[in-house]
Amino acid sequence: MNKLVLLTLAGTLAGAAPAAAQTTEKLDAAALAKIRDEGLNRSKVMETAFYLTDVNGPRLANSDGLKRANEWTKAQLTKFGLANANIEAWGDFGRGWDIEKSYVAMTAPYYHALVGIPKAWTPSTPGLVRKQIVVVKANTEADLAKYKGQLRDKIVVMSVAASLKPATEGAIRRYSDEDLKKLAAPVPPPPPGTAVAQDGRKILAALRAAMTDMLVSEGAAGVLSARGGIYGTFNTSNGAPYAADAKPALPEIETAPEDQLRLIRLVEAGVPVEVEMETKTRFQTQDLKGYNVVAEIPGTDKKLKSEVVMLGGHLDSWHAATGATDNAAGCAVMMEAVRILKATGLKPRRTIRIALWGEEEEGLYGSRGYVKNHFADPATMQLKPEHEKLAAYFNLDNGAGKIRGIYAQGNETAAPIFQQWLAPFADLGASTVTLRNTGSTDHIAFDAVGMPGFQFIQDGLDYFPTTHHTNQDTYDRLIADDLKQASVVVASFVYDAAMRDQKLPRKPLPAPAKPQ
Amino acid sequence: MNKLVLLTLAGTLAGAAPAAAQTTEKLDAAALAKIRDEGLNRSKVMETAFYLTDVNGPRLANSDGLKRANEWTKAQLTKFGLANANIEAWGDFGRGWDIEKSYVAMTAPYYHALVGIPKAWTPSTPGLVRKQIVVVKANTEADLAKYKGQLRDKIVVMSVAASLKPATEGAIRRYSDEDLKKLAAPVPPPPPGTAVAQDGRKILAALRAAMTDMLVSEGAAGVLSARGGIYGTFNTSNGAPYAADAKPALPEIETAPEDQLRLIRLVEAGVPVEVEMETKTRFQTQDLKGYNVVAEIPGTDKKLKSEVVMLGGHLDSWHAATGATDNAAGCAVMMEAVRILKATGLKPRRTIRIALWGEEEEGLYGSRGYVKNHFADPATMQLKPEHEKLAAYFNLDNGAGKIRGIYAQGNETAAPIFQQWLAPFADLGASTVTLRNTGSTDHIAFDAVGMPGFQFIQDGLDYFPTTHHTNQDTYDRLIADDLKQASVVVASFVYDAAMRDQKLPRKPLPAPAKPQ
């Protein structure tokens, strides 16, 4: 899931509650029973998740890890019996980047190895560097200017909030019945201040860019920064741009807040602090393109097989862990769903196409590129012939929890259909349809050009704040029963959409984002 | 707190519930008000804790960090106005050991920096070594023998439990009223199987020793092991003996379970895994003695000033963090208690002596040595003259939570006195007296020779399983309000004991542990 999720959810307006069912869905109970049996009793979802995470490793946009995962998923989907597996370029992304060494420690007043990892797309240090640190506290460019002349050959420690809030809640959370009831109801308008928060982010980004330029021009040796986390879990993201022509940045390590706070407290108490760091990072500039992996189960109905039901999730991740909950889990479930459909021998009328997206974390680039190449450019809303052929797109990218329902994304005619499709899964905990939108992941690319794109509601488990974009998003976080359940629900939805006489109903086409 | 705590608690028999008060205690309300005012409104406890943790660093037995802390606490107690501050040898301990470099990463099938730290008293690697790994699963020496011939020049990864239990509870816990009621009641006898668990530990220790010998003789390059923890928190302890004449061991790093499990899963799936590690550790063999820090507030009553009220806690810690909750918190509270007593200008009748113990984690060595040197040898129960002069010893070492009461350690005549001493602190949450014993820390050294030694009941906060002996036992875990409260309660207890007409009543003298 892309990092904008919380703001987007807060800024979303839900429509009215789903109207009563308009049509009666013809469900194939025997087929659904086969899907459930295969998915619950002969699941391969944990094996798939293991290969996606442990074996392929971190999957940062255009990294070696993502390339490995692209190759592996293409081969594995073919092994599952899918046709037309392909690693398809969606357009230009930017530089690849991988870590070859990551080491940081405090060496004075005593030795302490810090927990940390280079921020993405930051350059290497010139070998092992050992320097005094300077703590920089700056909320404005004027604050920043005060440090001029003090940073040469120093390791800059960016200040953070003064203390950590003790963890009073368990990491694992599930939706209660009450939570789901609230989720199914329309949301109130966003509270005043949401727009301000967005402005705050822009100001911060501008400050951050100014800071990088200044640190480089002042000749600082490196940067240590921290954003969030507790007890050795910490957030991570990029510390420099990935564009081929990006301005130079400094070697930078994101640390666990406990370590960062210790450095800051020592400096504030007047204790001289020295840090050594060694990062070796490798940029790849031969291929700046980004890719998605696609594969198909061809439809069997002469009239309908030119129509497509898509399912997918993003395969890329951040780099400090193996992106297990964000979003190997979603990909493993989607791969398992198509494996189930092949293993059961069911014959879908429409073509089913799985897509594992690249470069989602930087802005849904993989899915947006694919949608633009195949369906429509949201800027112009010029529709390509494939646009009318898409029956539905289903996405999974809200962690590793089981499915509790689906976001109907304001589509009032689809909602009662989903309600009926979910009915067989009430015993597995999936029964909620909300008209609310959810954002920050790849179904948005489809929704943006008026196609029926949806994301499922999932139990959060430890997604926020523990695993999402942290160094602890690993295979150990996955719970087999949750992923099996999700695979069965997704496979059934995809099958229902592939068998239905009509494609899923659509919302009215949006206006072009940039009218000509 | 020493690592045996859980077994000891489980194996403890409580006596009957405290009888009704036998005597009426004369409490000096004005003095207690002064103590409370100083301790709650002009506290220095967090400043003291900061110096103990962040500034002095990890304080492993006989390490540089512990030496720094000994010097600092001696100086600081003198600054607080205490007399006779002294760093007093308690006897022979073994080698000092400090870390100068700690680095470990997986380098194949892809690069991943592991979270880990050398186990205490393990030797250095010969620079950076990069080796293939072998996973060793052995529950018996016969299991172990199967690996002969496979370990030369390999990094050995010790197997661990197959998966991590998701964290469903928050890290921070406090005693509820119900919990305290249960704690005040006698405990049932230990469940069958407790003795077996003790046997299991011995078997494991013997296996571990055999394993070390074999790994050394087989020529393994190093060891990675993991015991417990989740989300980047991990346990740590020693991996080799500290005795001056200890047999050689291998360089060994204790890792976060997530990292260890990833290595194991990859090997089990047939993926070749390579790890690089570099540890630089420094042994100190010039001074093999262990030390305690002591200082006094001399008594003012001619008749009683030769009698002593002691308070203390262990200053040493494990090495992966700064031992904030185990036990800088206890030491900071004890130091704050004597600071408060000096700052208020109160004139205790008896002498008050603070002791900050060394080498507790390896077996309560500092306090046991002190007791043997000053009071009595539990082996013979030959009493020294100081034995009868000790009015009481109060210990703090159950984390960083506020005080909720006191363990009367089976002393039925002391219990009603404590009940009255606690009465003024009901509003601060401290009101429970239990006759139960608690073990695994330094009051046991006093109790073992028939002197009145007690430990307070504290809220657990995140002590188990998050901070106790982990890499996350840092200053960030301390909550100022808890430590202020504890300081006030301790200062008051010490003052009450110093002013009371009689010393605290004692239990009957125990028999010699080794009768002559």
From TrEMBL, chains A, B:
Predominant place of localization: endoplasmic reticulum
Alphabetical list of Pfam families matching this protein: Peptidase_M28
UniProt keyword terms in alphabetical order: Carboxypeptidase, Endoplasmic reticulum, Glycoprotein, Golgi apparatus, Hydrolase, Lysosome, Metal-binding, Metalloprotease, Protease, Secreted, Signal, Zinc, Zymogen
Record localization: Endoplasmic reticulum; Golgi apparatus; Lysosome; Secreted
Start and end residues of each Peptidase M28 domain: 292-493
Subunit architecture: Homodimer. The monomeric form is inactive while the homodimer is active.
Annotated protein name in UniProt: Carboxypeptidase Q
Organism encoding this protein: Hymenobacter ruricola
Taxonomic classification: Bacteria, Pseudomonadati, Bacteroidota, Cytophagia, Cytophagales
